[in-house]
Amino acid sequence: MTEKTILLVDDSRVARMMTGAAIVRLRPSWRVVEAGNGEDALIAAAAARPDYVLMDVNMPGIGGMAAAEHLRRDFPDAAISLLTANIQDPIRYHAERIGVGFLIKPLREDDLARFLDSRQGES
Amino acid sequence: MTTIIGEIEHDAVTEILNIAVGQAAASLSRLVEDEVTLSVPFVEFLTPEQSAARLDEATGGGLSVAVRQEFHSSFSGDILLIFPERKSLDLVRSMLADTVPLDQLTELEQDALIEVGNIILNACLGSLANQLGLMIESSLPTYVCGRGASILDSKHVDSELVMFLQVDFSVAAKGVRGYLAFVMDIVSAQSFASTVSAYVARVVAG
Question: In angstroms, rounded to a whole number, what is the distance separating the alpha carbons of residues B60 and B81?
Fold first, then answer.
């Protein structure tokens, strides 16, 4: 399998550790890049050019939704999904509207596997 | 103060919160990879002083830890997920056992609790919002530790009330009993009550 880069954005160190560990279990050869807020995610993405992005929503600064919207524009081929504890329907609809996925915390490994299998990152 | 909400609305609130807490328990269950059984939440409307006394009773006068988020909608206030301090490390252990070396657990305990709180409080608020047909904004979660009164941090003891739920987050092997508290001022509580009345009317009308 081709080596890919995944950008993991969450203001919680523990959340990044948990998600990061699950990614390493499923895709040991992938490069995992981390960012702790939306602004840093944009900087990290410009440098790392991720194929996949997992983005928390409630974060200090511009927040995950705005950051995801930016990344959607800048990286049209990347597979991007929100990863959030905020299960409210309007958040889900907003994700659909801006063309990113919606995964809920805590992340199930089979949902993560499905996301990592998605083809958008390879198109 | 406890008559702010009618009998039917109280039943409706209990049902709505039951579903919300069910959603939260499902989230917790996935985190700890174990079955989480929960008691039907007993919803009470208490004064801040009464709630603080309940918490201190539950910890035997010890410390509680909590994750707090402010929430804003047609009613606003603080929502808190509260655990006795001595139980909180058990919860963190069951959650992170496979991910983090044991010697780092204590250092990460606070971060981990905030993340557990974030997931549970959002599951609860989100389910509440979806059922009532509202959007509820919430702040970033913060960690607090102390006795009952400082945990609840009521700014206006005379004009605030607490919607208080005991939630038995009993993870199969270990009992982790938690509490959920919604601290609202009287205006918000009235607005919450009328939102629930409207919900009841909609449900009854089919």
Answer: 18
